[in-house]
Design goal:
The protein is of the alpha/beta class and 588 residues long. The protein contains 24 helices and 10 strands. The strands form 2 sheets. A 6-stranded mixed beta sheet has the order 6-7-8-3-9-10, sandwiched between helices. Helix 2 (29-54) packs across helix 11 (254-274). The radius of gyration is 28 Å and the shape is elongated. The protein starts with a helix and ends with a helix.
């Protein structure tokens, strides 16, 4: 973690603590109760910030997880388990985790509206069960008691603020870890997440488990606030409202969750005072969610963007100045590294003689009655840059998907002499077979540093990152990917694939969308990759000038079969290749 991160956390927690103590001391009892409701709602929204805001999955069952937490708290109260809410609250969160994993299983195959229907159905089922059985202690009139130190509402409000802050700090730490990066990568592309060596099922299930735990905490807090809860406190329709508020406020950030909780309480209170039915609050939040989806960001994201656009103002400038003094350096960010020529030596891990980095034999891909790849043999020597070319529809993308495990295929695939054809895509990536994609799949929610460390799957210093980016992309480690142009993002994907130090990096049309100068720079950089990083490269490209500049050997596909292979000069002069690209008349 960078030095700035714990300082930001410390400053945020200190400010929240001062605000909470001030509110608890100054507000009337009724407003303390409302503030407590806002904070508890903020905890619930943090759970949505994980599964929806970060991982990009639709969950409409958060109130069901909260109900599980409240039910567990009530049951522990009936049993008289020692420790009170100090102990019952985390236990309530843990009780919701198994159901979070259970509801996460459909997410392994479903997404979008289909997943929304499944999660909403789960919420409705939990509501029916709880309504039929009632909460523990309700029939006996046994209220959930608060332990010493939490009996007064002002004390309990501070306890709720403490839980919110603790969840925010832990999520902040997770956000900067590999699981957190995996969630944000998952939001952009499941295929790219698997290509980075991360198991998509594990990432999805972990997001649902953490989300359920946090929602269970909010249910426990609500039970302690109300003393006695019933099923209507967790109506499934409230999950829809919570999702809308989470999107509107940007609940993937702690401040967004807190803003969302405050808005929920404030709008409801204003409508009550005006004598307007509470259902109109749902319309307000739905309109806000639509606006956020249209703009591509919620309130918290908009606030963060505004602070970044005003580097010389307010708290942001003061914090940067403090960080600069602590580091003993300027508070301003370092300039982008300047490109260098491909001939500059950087002998990090030179390629060593050994087996072929990639060996494919008899690859065959069928889509129904259509044969896309028909018995292709392909080899990439260790320490070499090889090319794979062919006209549109030749089967290149199908072959790449077959090699990297993203489509079913027959034949064998070996990496450094070890068979990987029975492994799923993410296991092949870990075995030394990395790839990029034709479409931009770089997670926009990460910084350059976070993304490259995520795909590399190993610790990297800024110096390591700068060395690889130097001569390739005009981006610094601290730059936000969302603010980079598409061409730079594609080059970052290439850098990430080779930074992992795989046996072979399969680059699928990395020059698409690049200008002439960028393409030339990419070709020079690719030629140096085997020597600098010890990584063999398979380049799939339509730009034949780039292939000539970077590749030592070229394989040509047409209609799913290899029609030529060898040095670029010989291959591109082959009549069969000319016929495939230019037609019979030219070949004659």
């Amino acid at each position: 973690m960078r030095l700035a991160d714990p300082l930001r956390v410390a400053v945020g927690c200190a400010a929240l603590a001062l605000l909470a103590y001030g509110l608890a001391a100054l507000l009337p009892a009724y407003w303390v109760f409302l503030a407590m409701s806002a904070v508890i709602s903020g905890v619930l929204l943090q759970s949505l910030g994980v599964v929806a805001g970060q991982a990009g999955m639709v969950s409409l069952c958060q109130m069901a997880f909260a109900a599980i937490g409240a039910w567990t708290t009530a049951q522990l109260n009936v049993w008289g388990v020692p420790g009170g809410l100090w102990v019952w609250t985390p236990l309530a969160g843990l009780a919701a985790v198994p159901l979070g994993l259970l509801i996460g299983l459909p997410a392994l195959r479903l997404r979008g509206v289909h997943l929304a229907i499944v999660t909403l159905g789960f919420a409705a089922t939990v509501d029916v069960v709880l309504a039929a059985t009632s909460f523990p202690g309700v029939n006996q009139g046994l209220a959930v008691g608060r332990p010493a130190g939490l009996a007064a509402d002002r004390q309990y409000f501070l306890f709720c603020v403490g839980v919110f802050a603790l969840v925010a700090v832990l999520l902040g730490l997770v956000r900067r870890s590999r699981p957190g990066a995996a969630w944000r990568a998952l939001r952009e592309s499941e295929r790219a997440t698997a290509a980075a060596g991360t198991g998509v099922p594990g990432a999805k299930l972990s997001a649902f488990a953490v989300s359920a735990f946090i929602a269970g905490l909010s249910g426990a807090l609500l039970a302690g606030q109300l003393a006695m809860v019933v099923s209507r406190n967790f109506d499934p329709g409230q999950s829809l409202v919570a999702y809308a508020v989470a999107v509107f406020a940007g609940a993937q950030y702690a401040e967004g969750a807190l803003i969302g909780g405050a808005l929920g309480v404030a709008v409801a209170e204003v409508l009550r005072r005006l004598g307007i039915p509470q259902q109109w609050a749902n319309v307000v939040f739905a309109a806000g969610a639509i606006q956020a989806l249209t703009q591509g960001s919620g309130i918290s994201e908009a606030l963060r963007a505004a602070l970044r656009r005003a580097p010389g103002s307010g708290v942001g400038a003061a914090l940067r100045a403090v960080l600069g003094r602590v580091r003993g350096s300027r508070p301003s960010p370092a300039p982008h590294p300047s490109p260098r020529t491909a001939g500059t030596p950087a002998p990090a891990h030179p390629a060593q003689p050994g087996p072929e980095a990639l060996k494919v034999r008899g690859a065959c891909v069928r889509y129904g009655q259509v044969v896309a790849v028909d018995g292709v043999d392909l080899s990439v020597p260790a320490g070499a840059v090889a090319g794979l070319v062919g006209p549109n529809g030749a089967g290149k993308s199908s072959l790449v998907d077959a090699i990297t495990g993203f489509t079913a295929a027959r034949g064998s695939v070996a990496v450094d002499g070890e068979p990987v054809d029975r492994l799923p895509a993410h296991r092949r990536a870990r075995a030394g077979l990395r790839r990029t994609f034709q479409q931009d799949r770089v997670p926009a929610g990460l910084s350059v540093r976070e993304y490259l460390r995520f795909v590399a799957r190993r610790p990297l210093t800024d110096a390591d990152l700068g060395e690889v980016l130097d001569g390739l992309a005009a981006a610094g480690p601290g730059d936000r990917i969302a603010e980079l142009d598409v061409g730079t993002r594609r080059l970052l994907e290439v850098a990430g694939a080779v930074l992992a130090r795989p046996a072979v990096a399969v680059l699928d049309e990395p020059a698409a969308g690049l200008g002439h100068a960028e393409t030339e720079r990419l070709g020079a950089w690719l030629r140096s990759v085997p020597r600098r990083l010890g990584v063999a490269v398979l380049l799939i490209e339509h730009d034949l000038d780039l292939v000539r500049a970077a590749c030592e050997r070229v394989t040509v596909l047409d209609f799913g079969r290899v029609i030529a292979e060898g040095p670029p000069a010989e291959v591109f002069a082959d009549p069969r290749v000319l016929r495939a690209y230019l037609g019979e008349e030219v070949a004659a």
